[in-house]
Design goal:
Helix 1 (about 15-55) packs across helix 2 (about 60-80). The chain is built from eight helices and five strands, in the order αααααβββαβαβα. It has helices at about 15-55, 60-80, 95-100, 100-105, 110-120, 165-175, 195-205, 215-220, and strands at about 125-130, 140-145, 150-155, 185-190, 210. It has a five-stranded mixed β-sheet, sandwiched between helices.
Length: about 230
């Protein structure tokens, strides 16, 4: 009687199969990498040849385009580093939100301060507008520094139309903007109006403050002259 045939073990073949599979994948990856590098090299050569041909055919046009590209790159670098502040766009979602009287009434006090700073930054004469409001701001919410060297203190009052700015605010700002903050002028900007007592108190000052009520703010928002003049 013949002995039953022994089953051949496949255990020793599996590692070999796996190694072959990994080797094949590695070869495929290297081949794809070489193909990608070759494709990029060919594309670069084609682009370079096209540029050289364009320079030979249209030297003036290519020079102008290159100069504009360099100028755009330099301008972008200056904007990103903060050396140049571009004026805010008069239209768009951001402008509609920050430069709208109706929007101001729905802001918090802090948001209103930042909105006024944004509004001031669109003026070419403003070099910097820094929000400084807080619990101990000493009547200074936004500090403006103009290109001519002047410093302007801004007090922001986002009030409802029925809540008018009174004389105590006039006295508080007048008492700090020169002696404490070392500013040349002071503004009080409100979404509301000023009481008659506030207007009389301001008129009696040796150096009256610039009072910007809701209407004056609206004119400024619409492209009018900045309230500090000059």
């Amino acid at each position: 009687m013949a002995a039953p045939a022994r089953r051949r073990s496949t255990r020793s073949r599996r590692p070999v199969t796996r190694r072959r599979s990994r080797t094949a994948r590695s070869r495929t990856a290297r081949r794809r990498t070489r193909e990608t590098a070759t494709g990029r090299l060919i594309a670069a050569v084609i682009i370079l040849a096209t540029v050289v041909a364009a320079i030979r055919e249209y030297p003036v046009t290519v020079s102008v385009v290159a100069a504009l590209a360099v100028a755009a790159a330099v301008l972008l670098l200056l904007v990103r580093t903060g050396r140049i502040n571009l004026p805010a766009l008069p239209t768009g979602v951001r402008a509609d939100f920050t430069h709208s009287i109706a929007a101001y009434h729905h802001m918090t006090g802090t948001q209103f301060e930042h909105a006024i700073a944004d509004l001031a930054r669109r003026e070419p004469a403003v070099r910097a507008a820094t929000v400084s409001g807080g619990a101990n701001d000493r009547a200074l919410d936004v500090l403006l520094q103009l290109t001519d060297g002047r410093r302007i203190a801004v007090q922001c009052k986002r009030y409802a139309p029925s809540n008018r700015v009174g004389a105590p605010v006039i006295y508080a700002v007048n008492g700090t903007y020169r002696a404490y903050h070392r500013c040349d002028q002071a503004l009080i900007v409100t979404t509301s109006t000023f009481t008659p007592a506030a207007q009389r108190a301001n008129a009696e000052l040796d150096h009256p403050l610039h009072l910007v009520d809701g209407r004056a703010l609206g004119r400024w928002v619409s492209g009018g002259r900045p309230p500090w003049g000059g």
